[in-house]
Specification:
Number of helices: 12
Radius of gyration: 36 Å
Number of domains: 1
Distance between the termini: 105 Å
CATH class: Alpha Beta
Oligomer: single chain
Helix content: 40-55%
Strand order of the largest sheet: 3-2-1-4-5-7-6
Low-confidence stretches: 182-196, 284-291
Order of helices and strands: HEEHEHEHEHHHHHHEEHH
């Protein structure tokens, strides 16, 4: 895959990081919400989405960002039933979900469903937008208590309040600009600024949500620290059966972080709580600028290494494609040269045939003139007799 845009470069980086911890050639993988940019690709990979492939192609047919011809073949349609019922007897070694968890109304219930369809030791790869550096940056971060309320209420769709906040507080801003604009303020997870979101658009959607329709928004907002803090609280309440095996904070200038969860087969109780809590990374303290700077420096170096690798691969692909085009042009030139030689030979043959025809014509005319003269001579001779 050649990086032709910033989006392609980000996709390459995500896939490179994913493949570092997952063999998609042998592992049974389920990717949720891949659309036209799957991270996991292979014969053992299956895809799940809220519509089948034809439905997704119809929904996004006029979206300039989505290449409908590259939408993945959907094996499982997420129609509101439990995942275990949707996938049947299928079980997976890994589940990939990029920018999905923030859309899930009941995160605790969703993680339990993922747990149920994973094989022992199975992993969940989550790319999560950092609310401090995306269009949610004016929204407060989601707490463990809010996740608990959503679970207790068994929410199946975004609440009217989530719709109002998700649309009314939406502010389009580039991640780089948010990184540059006051790191201390943003690191706290709140802005203290009044909203200037599109409330005229938000309220009609809130009324649809009140009427029971599914309005897709970010139900939750996380930062790396807030996610780990909430996860710790849920583990202590025996509501989550996952530990953390990989964790990458948001890199400078970026807007997402990575969390890889691993299924635990321990029974709920103090032993599982202790084991899972021991896997959690220590969140960076926003009040400690030195620790924060060190962490982000290492992330930036790691990202630079990945970018360099991706650029080398992309350059090799571009050079190979260029060489292929040069070879094609050489073949076409040689074919034209041969055609020219054949045309010259044909022209020579035609010229020779023309000259021969003219010579024959001259002879025919000469014979005809002889016949005319001979006839006149005979006429004179016979006339004298």
């Amino acid at each position: 895959m050649i990086a032709t845009s910033a989006a392609d470069a980000i996709h390459l980086r995500r896939r490179h990081r994913l493949l570092a911890g997952l063999d998609t050639t042998t592992a049974a993988v389920l990717e949720i919400g891949a659309l036209n940019r799957p991270l996991a690709v292979g014969a053992t990979v299956r895809y799940a989405d809220h519509l089948d492939t034809a439905g997704l192609q119809h929904k996004y047919r006029d979206d300039p960002v989505v290449d409908c011809q590259r939408i993945v073949p959907v094996s499982y349609v997420l129609d509101g039933r439990p995942l275990s019922e949707i996938v049947g007897e299928a079980r997976f070694d890994a589940i990939v979900a990029s920018h999905v968890i923030e859309h899930v109304p009941d995160v605790i219930g969703w993680l339990a469903e993922l747990h149920a369809i994973l094989r022992p030791g199975g992993r969940v790869f989550l790319y999560i937008p950092d609310g401090r550096y995306c269009f949610d940056y004016q929204r407060p971060l989601t707490t463990a208590g809010q996740l608990l309320d959503a679970h207790r209420q068994q929410r199946k769709r975004p609440s009217p309040g989530a719709v109002l906040d998700g649309l009314g507080l939406m502010t389009h801003a580039a991640a780089n600009n948010l990184w540059r604009a006051g790191a201390v303020r943003v690191a706290a997870g709140v802005t203290g600024e009044p909203s200037h979101g599109p409330l005229d658009t938000a309220w009609p959607m809130v009324r649809l949500a009140d009427a029971g329709e599914y309005v897709d928004v970010h139900c939750h907002v996380f930062s790396p620290s807030s996610f780990i803090t909430a996860l710790a609280a849920l583990i202590q309440g025996d509501l989550v059966g996952f530990g953390v095996v990989d964790f990458a904070e948001t890199a400078p200038g970026d807007l997402e972080f990575l969390v890889v969860l691993e299924r635990s087969d321990l029974a709920p109780g103090p032993e599982r709580q202790a084991a899972l809590l021991a896997t959690l990374p220590a969140p960076v303290n926003p009040a400690d600028p030195a620790a924060d700077a060190r962490s982000r420096l290492f992330e930036a170096l790691d990202r630079a290494r990945h970018d360099l690798h991706d650029e080398r691969v992309a350059s090799a692909h571009r050079l190979a494609a260029l060489q292929h085009r040069i070879d094609q042009y050489r073949d076409e030139i040689e074919a034209l040269r041969l055609q020219g030689a054949e045309l010259r030979q044909a022209l020579t043959t035609v010229t020779t045939a023309r000259d021969e025809a003219l010579a024959i014509l001259r002879k025919v005319r000469w014979v005809a003139s002889l016949r005319v003269r001979a006839g006149r001579m005979f006429a004179k001779l016979f006339g004298r007799s």
